[in-house]
């Protein structure tokens, strides 16, 4: 995967995290926004009168039939389950489960545990989810990060696929290139461009076709059936096992250390912060989107303010203090988000009044697992820290007031 493509993909996933802020940061949601679970658009259907007949010098032209405009608007939703059964310009959705049965005329920015596309998308689709199923047409590119991604038979991608997934199955049609990093890729459909992937296992079955080059890096060479058409060149690069028994696993060490440090910091915050910590956790649970927006604002504006203060207003040490406070806010913000997440999961699991210390442990462990997901994990961790940062700031501001 080339660096510019990786950059585009990373910015796209960041957009998934930040874009609901525009709709929710100032309040619980836009005043004229539809119900999150409804498929209604933001505007009423517009009826247009039939155009008047045009009279040509030679013969009259038959009037055309009246045109009924579709209900069009942007869809913003943050909920457990979102059904998109209307017609929208763009869709910005964060949910546990998203089902698209209507039509999105342009872009779709969706993050959810499960995403099912049964309606057409006219432009690009930016998906982050555990399970993504595409059963209809996507007119542009598909940028995706997830565990299981399926482009079903009869589905089509008008552009290319770019992503990082555990398993990618292509039974449908991709007009452009497929560039991905994956644990496993199964190709039974057709690709109009190149297949350029780094994969643990590549399986190409009969009936598949590749209109460009086949360039892949894998643990073993893929078997290409005789009936499979590859229009360009085929290049295979063997993966080298770089693991060595007995070597120090720095990544595992630092993950365990981060978990232990989070437990210690969280326990200290619960003990020293008292009611303020509890208030911050409640704010993070009650209005997650608002405090995500507040956290994003602080994350972007505090460094700018520190630079301006250092250059034009106040000596540099105070600017450095601002940056240190921002860093501490992100560290403790992750702890607050972990407690909020742990309480939510334990309550959903049947625990009526979970201990905040137990919730801290559960939340930190879940965040640790999510952080292992390539690309998406980074933005999940950043989003959690920003939600907590916004909640802490709102709590301190309310306490001062």
Provide structural commentary.
- Helix 1 packs parallel to helix 7 and helix 6 runs antiparallel to helix 7.
- The termini are far apart.
- 39% of the residues lie in helices and 26% in strands.
- The chain has 3 domains: 90 residues, no CATH class; 102 residues, no CATH class; 151 residues, no CATH class.
- The longest helix is centred in the last third of the chain and has 33 residues.
- 36% of the residues are buried.
- The N terminus is likely disordered.
- It is built from 7 helices and 18 strands.
- The protein is of the alpha/beta class and 401 residues long.
What's the gist of this structure?
With 401 residues, this protein is an alpha/beta fold. The chain folds into three domains: 1-43 and 73-119, no CATH class; 141-242, no CATH class; 250-400, no CATH class. It has helices at 3-24, 250-273, 275-286, 288-313, 316-348, 356-370, 376-400, and strands at 75-84, 87-88, 91-100, 103-104, 108-117, 125-134, 137-138, 142-151, 156-157, 161-170, 173-174, 178-187, 190-191, 195-204, 209-210, 214-218, 229-230, 234-238.
């Amino acid at each position: 995967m080339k660096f510019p493509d990786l950059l585009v993909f990373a910015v796209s996933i960041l957009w998934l995290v930040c874009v609901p802020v525009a709709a929710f940061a100032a309040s619980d949601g836009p005043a004229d926004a539809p119900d999150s679970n409804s498929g209604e658009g933001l505007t009423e259907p517009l009826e247009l009168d039939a155009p008047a007949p045009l009279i040509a010098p030679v013969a009259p032209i038959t009037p055309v039939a009246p045109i009924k405009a579709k209900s069009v608007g942007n869809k913003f939703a943050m909920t457990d389950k979102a059904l998109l059964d209307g017609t929208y310009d763009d869709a910005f959705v964060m949910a546990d489960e998203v089902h698209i049965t209507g039509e999105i005329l342009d872009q779709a920015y969706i993050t959810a545990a499960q995403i099912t596309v049964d309606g057409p998308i006219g432009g690009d689709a930016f998906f982050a989810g555990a399970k993504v199923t595409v059963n209809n047409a996507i007119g542009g590119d598909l940028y995706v990060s997830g565990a299981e991604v399926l482009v079903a038979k009869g589905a089509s991608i008008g552009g290319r696929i770019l992503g990082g997934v555990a398993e990618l199955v292509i039974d449908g049609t991709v007009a452009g290139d497929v560039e991905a990093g994956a644990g496993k890729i199964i190709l039974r459909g057709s690709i109009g461009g190149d297949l350029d992937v780094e994969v643990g296992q590549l399986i190409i079955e009969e009936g598949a076709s590749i209109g460009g080059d086949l360039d892949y890096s894998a643990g073993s060479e893929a078997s290409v059936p005789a009936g499979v058409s590859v229009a360009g060149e085929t290049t295979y690069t063997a993966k080298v096992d770089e693991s060595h028994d007995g070597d120090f696993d720095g990544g595992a060490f630092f993950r365990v250390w981060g978990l232990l440090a989070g437990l210690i910091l969280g326990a200290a915050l619960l003990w020293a912060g008292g009611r303020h910590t509890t208030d911050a956790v409640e704010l993070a649970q009650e209005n997650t989107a608002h405090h995500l927006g507040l956290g994003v604002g602080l994350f972007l504006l505090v460094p700018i303010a520190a630079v301006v203060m250092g250059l034009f207003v106040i000596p540099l040490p105070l600017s450095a203090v601002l940056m240190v406070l921002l860093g501490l806010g992100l560290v403790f913000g992750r702890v607050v988000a972990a407690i909020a997440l742990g309480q939510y999961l334990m309550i959903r699991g049947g625990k009526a009044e979970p201990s905040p210390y137990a919730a801290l442990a559960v939340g930190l462990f879940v965040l640790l697992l999510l952080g292992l997901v390539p690309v998406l994990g980074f933005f999940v961790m950043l989003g959690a820290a920003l939600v907590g940062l916004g909640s802490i700031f709102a709590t301190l501001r309310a306490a001062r007031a």
